[in-house]
Design brief:
The complex is a heterodimer of chains A (421) and B (227). With 421 residues, chain A is an alpha+beta fold. Chain A has two domains: 2-51 and 266-419, no CATH class; 56-258, no CATH class. In chain A, 52% of the residues lie in helices and 16% in strands. Chain A contains twelve helices and ten strands. In chain A, strands 1, 2, 3, 4, 5, 6, 7, 8, 9 and 10 form a ten-stranded mixed sheet that branches. In chain A, strand 2 and strand 3 form a beta hairpin. Chain B is built from seven helices and ten strands. With 227 residues, chain B is an alpha/beta fold. In chain B, 49% of the residues are buried. Chain B has one domain: 3-Layer(aba) Sandwich (Rossmann fold). In chain B, the strands form two sheets. Chain B has a six-stranded mixed sheet with strand order 6-7-8-3-9-10, with helices on both faces. A four-stranded antiparallel sheet of chain B has the order 2-1-4-5, covered by helices on one side. Classes of the chains: A alpha+beta (421), B alpha/beta (227). Chain A binds chain B through residues 2, 6, 9-10, 13-14, 305-306, 309-317, 319, 413-416, 418, and chain B through 55, 58, 60-62, 80-81, 84-85, 87-89, 92-93, 95, 99, 101-104, 112-113, 115-118, 160, 164.
Chain lengths: 421, 227
């Protein structure tokens, strides 16, 4: 403790050296914080972009639309496909659907969809669109599972003569009616209670009717299998691997339709950003390590005469090293605080320029421009854990640089140490 | 203070340096014995090995050959940690260039060897002030080296050399950076110190050496007794 106190006292006594060396250390601290801020902003922005990228894959029976009464295209996915796909790594969710067609006017038809209550009510032909807005009545509740209830699009409701103020209304499902591509099913007519009407914004989307999965199976007499499975990957980066695993797991029984945007995003933007951000971070850390190490090493070696004197008047080698370690650690912390103060004052502006010089040229143009605009608030993007880590790295490097320099000199005799300068 | 009988004993001591391909014989078979209190002046031309001799006696360097015994301890046989303790407790060193720690006050410079020797704060403060009073700097305790004249700095260095009350004080050209008048006063101070302990002084200045109780001359790595 005595030598630690000596080191800290020595630091405080020479204010000019304290300020000069602390500023030298502050500069790489500042740069590292700026690059960390850029990385945080870039990664945050990339994550935000990822949220907007479709991560849903659609599975259908091989070569079939999977509509249970569509001429020539009514084969279903095997029932165990649901369980197999659910167990694949990086699969966040699987939504099973059953679909049947029902004629309306002329060559038009509506779509009846069976789904698990609470799933996304994905619109046929617009599978990426789900949860259409309820404009009358209500949506499904958990206790609707297995009940003879349905939610229908407002265009289909108008055709069926159901208005908002009639809800709940009765709708009769008649599977004997046919169409050029719809074959009849020998099933009894069944009444459904329409509990809600929705508007999707799609013409065909508004001509659909959603009912609980078990209800669909009873009405259509479909005991097993699924028309479609909608598989949601846990991130845009996992889409490709999930697609590959599905193909391996299900073999030749299914068509897998994967979003092209996800593949493009993963192969270009995400990978590029990750690579550049990693390189820039490492470069900034390396710069800080090199600068802090050599500043401390040179600072100590310039004081070889002082070390020789301390040895000559009875200072032990270990004690002298401890004194210099304490001084260096305290100095690096002061430098770190200087660096943070500089960063708070000018981090955003400098980070923007650094981004333009370092990462910007390597990013896709459309991405770079929008990201550059988002870097305005960059200085608040650094958390205490990052600052703590940066300070810790700086302190350790300063201690190593100083300790190594002091150790080198203390190994010498007092006379040699005093001549070492 | 330890007994000073047979304080310094050098037997066939040599110190060689390598300078490129050349071997420089700074000392070559020196025999010297210093007993009791008093001041011994070591004189000789530049490069004659005077400072090297002092460094070997003060455990600041190790000889190439021969035996160095100081205060009953054979320095050749001591490990590094023991040499550190030896320098802390047995010798006080006064340098030509003072070698004070620039960030510390006069009092802190004087008390530093006592801190190394684990002396309590109150005791070392009292001892430090007493020593500074003794060298005539009682009014300069809080001043840093840069705020003191050369003579004052050397007096602080002498006070520091006495901090742990060593039996032996070694002074290497203590007046080399001082004017004649100031140098004379430093010698008088060292002479006073030598009343109670052994003081070895290396000097160029023959008139000042005349103040010593004994003078040895060193030339070409060999000693010659002058008085």
């Amino acid at each position: 403790m005595r030598m630690v106190a000596l080191g800290v006292r020595n630091l405080v006594r020479n204010k000019l050296r304290l300020i000069v060396v602390a500023l030298l250390i502050a500069l790489p601290f500042f740069l590292l914080l700026a690059f960390q801020a850029i990385n945080a902003a870039v990664r945050g922005y990339t994550e935000a972009l990822k949220q907007g990228v479709d991560t849903n894959l659609q599975l259908r029976a091989k070569g079939s639309m999977g509509h249970v009464n569509m001429v020539g295209s009514h084969r279903l996915l095997p029932h165990d496909a649901l369980e197999k796909v659910t167990e694949i790594e990086h699969v966040a969710k699987v939504e099973p659907y059953l679909l049947g067609m029902s004629p309306t006017e002329g060559h038009n038809f509506a779509m009846h969809v069976g789904l698990n209550v609470g799933d996304a009510e994905r619109l046929e032909s617009h599978g990426e669109a789900g949860h259409p807005r309820i404009i009358a009545g209500r949506d499904f509740r958990p206790d609707d599972a297995g009940q003879d209830v349905a939610v229908m699009g407002h265009a289909y409701a108008r055709w069926a003569g159901i208005t908002a103020h009639q809800l709940p209304a009765t709708f009769v499902v008649d599977l004997t009616r046919t169409h050029a591509v719809i074959f009849p099913l020998d099933r009894p007519r069944r009444e459904l209670k329409i509990i809600g009407i929705y508007a999707s914004g799609y013409v065909f989307g508004d001509q659909q009717l959603f009912m609980p999965m078990e209800t669909f199976r009873r009405i259509y007499g479909v005991d097993t299998g699924f028309s479609w499975l909608f598989v949601t990957a846990d991130s845009v980066d996992s889409v490709a691997v999930v697609e590959r695993k599905i193909r391996e797991t299900l073999g030749d029984v299914a068509d897998v339709i994967a979003p092209k945007a996800a593949a493009t995003f993963a192969s270009t933007t995400t990978r590029t950003v990750d690579r550049i951000a990693g390189t820039v971070s490492l470069s900034a850390v390396a710069l800080m390590v090199v600068v802090v190490f050599f500043v401390m090493l040179v600072t100590v070696r310039e004081r070889a005469r002082e070390i020789g004197t301390l040895k000559a008047i009875g200072g032990s080698d270990g004690g002298i090293v401890v004194q210099f370690l304490a001084e260096a650690t305290a100095l690096s912390l002061v430098g770190g605080v200087f660096g943070m103060a500089l960063f708070r004052a000018a981090g955003g502006a400098v980070a923007g320029r650094l981004f333009g010089l370092s990462m910007g040229p390597f990013l896709p143009a459309q991405y770079k421009d929008t990201l550059f605009e988002s870097l305005g608030g960059v200085s608040s993007g650094i958390g205490p854990s990052t600052i703590g880590l940066v300070l810790l790295i700086g302190a350790v490097v300063a201690a190593v640089g100083s300790g190594y320099g002091a150790w080198q000199v203390t190994r010498l005799s007092p006379v040699e140490a005093m001549r070492h300068e | 203070m330890s007994s000073t009988n047979g304080v310094v004993s050098l037997t066939d001591v040599a110190k060689y340096y390598r300078r490129g391909a050349e071997t420089v014989k700074a000392l070559d078979g020196i025999d010297l014995r210093v007993d009791g209190t008093g001041m011994v002046a070591i004189v000789g031309p530049s490069g004659s090995g005077k400072s090297t001799l002092l460094h070997l006696v003060g455990a600041m360097d190790r000889p190439t050959r021969g035996e160095v015994v100081v205060a009953g301890r054979a320095l050749n046989a001591l490990p590094s940690s023991a040499l550190t303790r030896f320098r802390r407790q047995t010798v006080g060193f006064v340098f030509q260039t003072f070698n004070l720690i620039p960030n510390l006050s006069a009092l802190e410079n004087v008390t530093l060897p006592m801190e190394f020797n684990k002396v309590g704060k109150a005791e070392r403060q009292a001892q430090g002030r007493r020593l500074l009073e003794q060298v005539g700097l009682g009014h300069r305790v809080t001043h840093r080296p840069a705020e003191l004249s050369g003579g004052e700095q050397q007096r602080v260095a002498i006070a520091r050399a006495l901090a742990n009350d060593p039996p032996l004080v070694l002074a290497d050209e203590p007046t080399g950076n001082l004017d004649t008048e100031t140098g004379q006063r430093i010698y008088e101070l060292l002479k006073e110190v030598a009343r109670q302990r052994t003081v070895l002084v290396v000097t160029h200045a023959e008139p000042l050496a005349q103040l010593a109780d004994r003078i040895v001359h060193i030339k070409d790595g060999r000693l010659e007794e002058l008085r």
